[in-house]
């Protein structure tokens, strides 16, 4: 298997990943990150093995304890006999996983466990940020037999909303004394959170944060059968409250399956991914035309008044050759 | 001609505009601003009559005297027997021409002159800002017999660079005592300015601003035959120095025609316009597909693992029907 690290033999890599080879999984995610030309082939190879794993989004401001919580969740899922995949996405990191590696030390708990696959990803360079590469990487993990797949991301602006777009179940982590409840309301996380985790619940102000969130949830009207976000307290650093978080996750999954919401979320996620891929392909082809002679030739005609700009644009679009 | 204001009869409107009817010109620019479906027809009708007028871009920070300078330039061009068009673009204005109207009072000098057409435009709502609607509006003015066409815009960020993209000759206005020389260097206007106008040259610090700009220009290496930006002093409010500005504009036009730069700039401008139109058309068609059932149906297939996202994206693109 020494050739795995550079292999672009998609069927062989997918087979090896499904058999549990972590190097094959790593190689496939690298192909996804690089936007390799084999991606359509990879997507086709993975499709039959995907679509059922629970994708758990986990987000929150820096310092609320996301990595520690993820680590403890992984431990709990492993105890339940599940194979777990973790994608740690840092949209602000200029290096792949760079800013996260420090926090990842604790993840070494699972470094020798073949039932856990952890990967840091940067969203840098991907048009559409999270929306383009992360769903495909999550699909690689699912294809490799991981269920659940945990996608952890720093809660900064757009990433929070994007994570809800790609997750079945979205956890928003808060910590007391950071004005988080108000921040949460502002950022619109009230709409995206299925489960709120008040971490560091042994600290001053934890009760106030808990009450604030409960109060804000109570304000929203809900139709019968609609999910009412859970609020759970934890001290992840001491592994306290993690069982409650897992219970809430399981309850949410049951609700998703009972209602038609699981199908709805997955279709919405697929739609976003398809659209991002289509737009990316259009941009790439447009760029080829721009650097090629086609646009230059049309522009020369327009500049001389022999062709109008609209007719030239139509001619350019006809060159995109999308069929 | 009472029907002109609502007419969408493009050949009749173009004919009336070419005959000098200001209402027909106004109507055509409104059609451009609205992104009306007759635009391809309009572009085709104008193409034979365009491609030779000098487009003068005039930009600078708020308060440097752009409107006053434009007003005096118009007066000078009129004295030389030229028909003049002015587009005042304010990218930040939420209303068409709203923020500019106050400054426009002086323009009333030319309100009854049939040889001058002045129009305020907002770039709001146009994808690509200046780049989408302004070139088409400039073409309407040129088609109506205006030469030169002056495009005046507030020098805020992107607009400055965009104006250089659509102008044959770019004027950057500065005023003393605003730290403008350093600002100019920062904003990259050194690269876009063909002519610097140090307006309000009777104020303290005007000499320092003049020397700063001259110094910065001197730093750049130039190949033989390359244009060296002129630096001109004016007091537009007293109509002083305007002749020097006009001389610099004429010299630049001569240089443009002598060198191959005029053709290069016009082709670059046409290329940007064609590309903006093509991208706009793609976005519009993509939006139709998104709101239609096509994407939803594909997404459902992907969510169920019956189709992969790449294949779905290819199917979506095939629906764009660009040919």
From TrEMBL, chains A, B:
Annotated keywords: Chaperone, GTP-binding, Hydrolase, Nucleotide-binding
InterPro entries xref list: GTPase/Isobutyryl-CoA_mutase, GTPase_ArgK, P-loop_NTPase
CDD domains per the UniProt record, alphabetical: MMAA-like
Pfam entry (one): MeaB
Molecular function in Gene Ontology: GTP binding; GTPase activity
SUPFAM superfamilies: P-loop containing nucleoside triphosphate hydrolases
Membrane spanning stretches: none
UniProt-listed PANTHER family: LAO_AO TRANSPORT SYSTEM ATPASE (PTHR43087:SF1), LYSINE/ARGININE/ORNITHINE TRANSPORT SYSTEM KINASE (PTHR43087)
Similarity section: Belongs to the SIMIBI class G3E GTPase family. ArgK/MeaB subfamily.
NCBIfam families, per the entry: lao
Name of the protein in question: Transporter
């Amino acid at each position: 298997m020494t050739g795995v690290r550079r292999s672009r033999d998609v069927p062989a890599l997918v087979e090896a990943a499904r058999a549990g080879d972590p190097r094959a999984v790593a190689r496939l995610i690298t192909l996804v990150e690089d936007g390799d030309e084999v991606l359509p082939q990879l997507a086709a190879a993975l499709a039959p093995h995907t679509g059922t794993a629970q994708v758990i989004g986990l987000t929150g401001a820096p310092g609320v304890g996301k990595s520690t919580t993820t680590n403890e969740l992984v431990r709990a899922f492993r105890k339940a006999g599940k194979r777990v995949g973790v994608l740690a996405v840092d949209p602000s990191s200029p290096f792949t996983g760079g800013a996260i590696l420090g926090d990842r030390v604790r993840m070494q708990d699972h470094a020798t466990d073949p039932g856990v696959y952890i990967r840091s990803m940067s969203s840098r360079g991907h048009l559409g940020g999270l929306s383009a590469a992360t769903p495909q990487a999550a699909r690689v993990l699912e294809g490799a037999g991981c269920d659940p797949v945990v996608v952890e991301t720093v809660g900064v602006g757009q990433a929070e909303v994007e994570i809800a777009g790609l997750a079945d179940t979205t956890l928003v982590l808060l910590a007391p004394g950071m004005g988080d409840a108000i921040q949460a309301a502002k950022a619109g996380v009230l709409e995206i959170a299925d489960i709120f985790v008040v971490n560091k619940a042994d600290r001053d102000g934890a009760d106030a944060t808990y009450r604030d969130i409960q109060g804000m949830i109570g304000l929203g009207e809900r139709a019968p059968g609609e999910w009412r976000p859970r609020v759970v307290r934890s001290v992840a650093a001491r592994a306290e409250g993690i069982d409650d978080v897992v219970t809430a996750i399981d309850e949410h999954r049951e609700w998703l399956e009972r209602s038609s919401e699981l199908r709805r979320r997955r279709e919405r996620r697929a739609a976003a991914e398809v659209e991002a891929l289509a737009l990316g392909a259009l941009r790439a082809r447009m760029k080829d035309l721009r650097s090629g002679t086609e646009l230059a030739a049309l522009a020369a005609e327009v500049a001389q008044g022999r062709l109008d700009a609209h007719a030239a644009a139509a001619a350019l679009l006809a060159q995109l050759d999308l069929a």
